[in-house]
Design goal:
Layout (H helix, E strand, L loop, with lengths): L5 E6 L4 H13 L3 E7 L5 H9 L4 E5 L5 H15 L4 E4 L15 H27 L5 E4 L10 H5 L3 H20 L4 E2 L10 H8 L3 H9 L5 H14 L2 H4 L14
Parallel strand pairs: 1-2, 1-4, 2-3, 4-5, 5-6
Helix pairs in contact: 1-9, 3-4, 4-6
C-alpha cells in the first residue's frame, strides 16, 4: 500500500466533465491512480482513456445511490491501497424543464436520487478510506442552479435539478462541519459545453436556449484543468464548507 501514490475516485466518469477530470489527473500526475466510476464501464471514450493510461485508470461500475455497488468500490480500493485521497462526486442528471406545479413528483425523486442521495451514499461507503488519507478531500460537483440567490430560481424552470443541487450543497457543508479532518466543499463548474447542456437545448425551452446562447460555454477539458487546480490547492481552513465557483471565488448559496 504505497503512500507515494495519490488515489482518486471520480464518480460519473464516462463522459463530459467526469471523463475530462480523469484525463486531466492522469496527464498531470504520473503518481495518480484514478478509479473512474461509470454506470456503463464499457463506454467507448472511457475505454480510450484506460488504454492510454494503462494501469493508472481503473474503471469501476458506479451507480448513484446503489449502496451495495458503492460499498464494493470502497472494498476494491481498500484492498489495494487502504485509502482514497480525493473523491470527486460528479455523477448527475438534468432532464426536466417545467414549473413546480407542472412537474411530475417522480422527476423530483429521480433528480434527488442521483444528484443528492447519490453523493451521500458514496460518502458513507468511502468515508473510512478518506479518513485513512493524509490529505483527504471530498468534492461534489454542484451547479449555479442550486443557488437560491441567483438567476435560475426566478428565471428558469429547473426545479427538480435546482432543488437537488441545493440539497447537495447543504449536505456537503454539513459533511464539512461533521468531519474536522476532511476538506469538503461543493464546486460549481460554471457553464460547460457538455451533453447535459445539449440536453437542456433539446428540451426546447426558449428561456434556456436564450440563456445558453448568452453564456460562454467552456469545454470539458478547460473546466477540468481549472477544477483540478482548485481541488489540489484546497485546504480545510481556506475552502472547507464553502460553495466554490469556477473562477476561484465563492458562489452565493
Amino acid at each position: 500500500m504505497s503512500q507515494s501514490r495519490v488515489i482518486y475516485l471520480v464518480a460519473g466518469a464516462s463522459r463530459g466533465i467526469g471523463l475530462a477530470l480523469v484525463e486531466e489527473i492522469a496527464a498531470r500526475d504520473a503518481s495518480a491512480i484514478i478509479y473512474a466510476g461509470a454506470r456503463d464501464p464499457s463506454a467507448p471514450l472511457l475505454k480510450e482513456v484506460t488504454e492510454k493510461y494503462h494501469g493508472r485508470v481503473v474503471v469501476v461500475k458506479y451507480v448513484a445511490g446503489d449502496k451495495e455497488g458503492n460499498d464494493a468500490i470502497a472494498k476494491e480500493i481498500g484492498a489495494k491501497y487502504g485509502r482514497v485521497d480525493t473523491v470527486i462526486a460528479n455523477a448527475g442528471i438534468f432532464n426536466c424543464l417545467s414549473k413546480v406545479h407542472e412537474t411530475p413528483i417522480l422527476k423530483f425523486v429521480e433528480h434527488f436520487d442521483v444528484n443528492a442521495i447519490g453523493p451521500i451514499v458514496l460518502f458513507q461507503s468511502i468515508r473510512e478510506l478518506l479518513k485513512a488519507s493524509p490529505s483527504p478531500r471530498f468534492v461534489p460537483i454542484s451547479s449555479g442552479a442550486g443557488s437560491i440567490e441567483r438567476i435560475p430560481i426566478s428565471a428558469l424552470e429547473v426545479a427538480p435539478y435546482g432543488t437537488s443541487k441545493a440539497a447537495l450543497n447543504w449536505i456537503t457543508r454539513k459533511i464539512h462541519f461533521e468531519n474536522e479532518w476532511l476538506v469538503a466543499f461543493p464546486q460549481c463548474p460554471g457553464p460547460v459545453d457538455t451533453d447535459m447542456a445539449k440536453q437542456a437545448k433539446a428540451l426546447d425551452n426558449a428561456e434556456v436556449v436564450e440563456l445558453i446562447k448568452k453564456l460562454k460555454l467552456r469545454s470539458s477539458g478547460e473546466v477540468a484543468k481549472i477544477l483540478i487546480d482548485i481541488i489540489t490547492a484546497s485546504t480545510r481552513e481556506k475552502d472547507g464548507g464553502q460553495f466554490h465557483n469556477i473562477d476561484g471565488g465563492r458562489h452565493p448559496w
